[in-house]
Design brief:
With 593 residues, this protein is an alpha/beta fold. Helix content is 60%, strand content 8%.
Length: 593
Amino acid sequence: MTSPSESSPPGTAAQNTRAAAAVELLEAVRTDLGAARLPLALPGADAARLDIRNALAQLDDYILPRFRSLDAPLLAVVGGSTGAGKSTLVNALVGHPVTRAGAIRPTTRQPILLHHPADAAWFEDQRVLPSLSRIRGTVVDTLLPANRAGAAPDAASISSLVLVGHPAVPEGIALLDAPDVDSVSDDNRKLAGQLLAAADLWLFVTTANRYADAVPWKLLQDAASRDIMVAVVLDRVPPAAEAEVSTDLRMMLQREGLGAARLFIIPEVTLDGLGMLPDGAVEPLARWVRELAADSAGRADIVRRTLNGTVRALSGRVAALAQASLEQQQSRDVLAKDAAAAYQDAVARILDATRDGALLRGEVLARWQDFVGTGEFFRVLEQNIGRMRDRLGAFFRGEPTPAVKVETAIETGLQAVIIDEAATAAEDADQRWRSDPAGRQLLGTDDLSGTGAGFPEKVAAEIRAWQGALMELIRTEGQGKRTQARWLSFGVNGLGAALMIVVFSMTAGLTGLEIGVAGGTAVVGQRLLEAVFGEDAVRRLAKTAREDLNARCHKLMQAEQRRFLDRLDFTTGVSPEVLSGHARALQRLAESA
C-alpha cells in the first residue's frame, strides 16, 4: 500500500505536514487516555470510564488510521435496525447475493467488508479496525440464495472481518455490512457501534414501520453531533404511504440536525428466488455511490468533514474526562482531609490532657506523693527550700524505686489517653468516609474504626523513648560545673520525674507554673528543679520536653492515619491540566482544516 506522501498529487505537501502534526498530537492524546484512571466511585465515573474506552476505540479504529491515510478509500458502513434489510441492500448494490439475508435474527454476526479488488491492500492489514482479525472471502460463480450466501452466523467469529473483493464495488469506496444496532446480542450491538464509529459515511437503513424507533435515532443524533455524512435508506415503503412516511422522516431528520442527509426510498416489493430486490430498485442509491467513488475531491471533502466532526467530538470527550479526573483528585483530597482532621483533633485532645493536670490524678498522683512525701515535707519546703536541699538529696538517693514508679504510672496513664484518642479518631474517620460513596468504596467491608495492630505496644515504646530523651536532657543540662553536684545528689530519675510532673501541669504554655495540681505537687517539682538548675533552665527544659512529646504524639497519629491514607495512594494516570490542554489542541485541530 502506498503512503499518502507517495500517492498524493503535487501541491499537497502542506496537507501532509498538517496530517503528520495531527498524528503526533493524536498519538499523545491516545497515550494519555490509555493511562487515565478514575478509581473512585463518584457520580458519573462509570460513564466517564465508558467514554475513555469509546474514545480509545475511535482513535484506533478511525481517527488515527484516517489521518495516516487521508487518500484511503471511503468506508461506508451499512447500519440499521434488526430486519431493516441491510444485507439485502448490500446484495442489491453488488448485483447478486454475497451477504446472508433471511428471517432468522441476527443474520449478520461476522461483518463483511466489500471493496474493489484494486483497493484490497488498504484493508488487508490492521490499518483500520485493528482489533478485528482479517479473513479473505471469495465470491463463488454459482449463485446461492441470499439466505445461504456468505458465512453462516457464528458467535465465535464476531471478532473477525471478512474481506470480499468484487468489481461491482466502485474503486475508492468500500461497503461494510454491519450487525444490527438493536440486536438481541450484546456483542452484536457493541460491534455495530464500533463499526459505525469507524465509518467515513453511514448508509443508515430503516423501514416504513420502524423509522421512528429510539435506538436508531440515538445513533443518528450521535452522527449529527459529529457532522458525519449520512444517507438514510427507507426500505419496504408501501406505495400508498410513501409521501406521508418520507415527509415525516425528512421532518425528523431536520429536527435532529440531519436535514442535509440524502434520503433514498426503496418500495415494498417481492424478492426474487435468490432473495434479491428487482433490478432498478436501488439504482438511485447505487448511482450516488458510484458518483462519490468517482469524485476524488468530493471524497476528500467527506473525509475532512467526518474527521473534523469526530475530532471535535473527541475534544469534548477529553474535556469531560479532564473534569472527571479533577473531581477524582478533589474527592481524594476531601477524604484525605477528613482522615487528617480526625487524627489532628485526636492530637489536640491528647495535648490538652497532658497540660491541664488531668494526668496528675489517680495513680500518677499517688506515686508522686509516695516519692516526695506529704505533710511536714511541704511546709518545711515552702519555708526554706535551701535548708531542705540536703534532706531532699538524701531522700532521692535513698528512694530510687518510687521515682521509677512515677515514670511507670505516667507511661500507663499517657498510653491510655493516646490509645483512647486514637480509637476515637479512627471511628470518626471511618464514619466520615462511609458517608461518602468514594470512601465507602475504598473501605469496602474492612473495619478501620479501631486502632491498628500493635498500636498499644508502639505507644508504650514511644513514651519510654520520650522519657529516655527527657532523662538525657537532665544529664546534658547537669554537665555544667556549677550544677553538677546538685543534680548528681538528687539523681537523674528523681529530677526526670519532677520534670515530667512540671510538663503535665502547664496550663498556659510556659506560664502559670505557680498553679498547683492536686494539692501542690507540681509546685514541689517546680521548686526542686529550680533549686538545681535555675528558673530559666527549667523553663527551657520543660519547653523542650513538651515539644518532643508533641512531636511523638503527632508521629503516632500520623502512622495510624496511614491506614486510611494508604487507600488513597493512587494516581489518575494523567493530570486534569494535561487533559484540558489536549482538549484545546483537539478543538484547534478540528477548526484548522
